[in-house]
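User: Structure please.
Assistant: Input sequence and predicted structure:
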Amino acid sequence: MAIPQLRRGQQQNSQATTIPASMEGINVVTSLALQSPAECVYTYNLISQDLGMVVRKGFEEWANGWTGSVAKTAIPFEGHLDTHDKLFVANDQGIWDCTTEETTAPTQVLTWATVGGEAGYCSYQVFTNDGNDMFVLLCDRVNGCHVYTQTTNTWAAVSEGVGAGQVSGVDPALFDYVMVWKNRVWFVQKDSSNGWYLDIATLYGAATKFNFGSQFRQGGSLRMMYNWSLDGGLGIDDLLVAVSAAGDIVVYQGTDPDNASTFSLTGSWFIGGVPKGNRFGVEFGGEVYILSVYGLLPISQLLNGSSTNDPNTYLTAKISPFIRQVMTEFREELGWQVVVHPEDAQLHIDTPQDTARANVSFVQYFGNQAWSMERGLDKSHTVNWRGKTYFTLGDRNSIVIKRGEKDSVWIDPVVDGPPAPIEWSILTSYQNMGEPARFKRCQYIRPQFITDALPSFSVAARYDFDIREEGAAPPLPVLQNGIWDITNWDASIWGGTLERVDNVSGARGMGRNIAIAMRGTSVSRTILVAFDVIADSGGWM
């Protein structure tokens, strides 16, 4: 096929345009030829927010040095007083106290009866009884039910029996999930369809079985349960949501599971297969979100009559191909998590770790509901504690805090190395600049940033739906003077020698549609606002 050329003698016209930051986020379900200028094909570590695309926060090591495997669970606890607050981690050896920042020797506060394997992968629930005593109920996949007591600052296993600190009717060593519904503790018996519940406001005593199996039309075991508080948990609209491993969702309404007249099935739906583990859902803002092979589903959509076959039913509609791809490869691996980062107004879908690829999380900003992606964070489990976000690492015995503008800020940089800049990448949507039939050649690209330290970046034009990622960025520059469109507003001293970022050219290639590919690194808070583009247009199609 002949390569199209600009018509001989055709006058070339230059036009300037500004491509805004991709604040509408990723869209991989709309044709590349029809995407909005404020959408993008992909973005890594540039998170869509209010002012533009913000480079994600970095992480600083909080505590490290326990023995055994990496931590599989972080367990936050906020007590009646600040002095009661605790941050624990669980690994395949037991539970460790990591409350104190920068401790190099966390204290082991519980040793598992059975160590190794999947020990340390836990579910937990804070519980307050009628006596205003606070506890953490924890169910380990291998070692069953344990309780942390605030007043004694101790952990203890829950055994089967009728005495103090015991549960009767079932062996608590079989529990691998715990939740609270209407002030009643519920457990999931692993590898079964059985839920077990206790009397109101108690955490020990007789357990009663509730078998969900007859409602699981696709089969599979009971995986987890959620409390869905449509009215804040004050009435009969407080619903019990149960999810099976095969992807059945059943919803119950009522007050007393012992009484059929006050407890009934509201509905059941099939949402497709769910990931391994019990962290693929989250309760937030009066909603329950469940992740399946089709995407992240708000349960309210089901009760409102939306179809699970409708892509728009899912919160992840614009990134559904990405979700399906990762699900296809890693659905049967532990490491999936849906979690909210309140301090950043973000919802995250974390995927399992894999040595063959850089770990990816899907991030939605609540302000505009746009999706972005994080890359390169080896997260094992993420929690919120004292208003901050913490996560355990999957490649070392550390728990870190989401803080600062650099990665790998270790407690001991002499041993572990210096901090690392945060690497980011973006490919904007393709635009024809108002002339769909004309060929264009990009002559000039100027990114506009808000930052106090110049990022390093390489940038280039992409033509006619080339989706290759831009190459690695050059080393970080040393910023001497303020640079127009690069420094904070009103932060530079006007006068002296000012430089303009106009040395980047996208003149390689030609096409009818243009996108901007950029890759860079940052060591300070950086916001991408827009791209100024000048392109020559010439011959017709």
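The chain has a mean pLDDT of 88.
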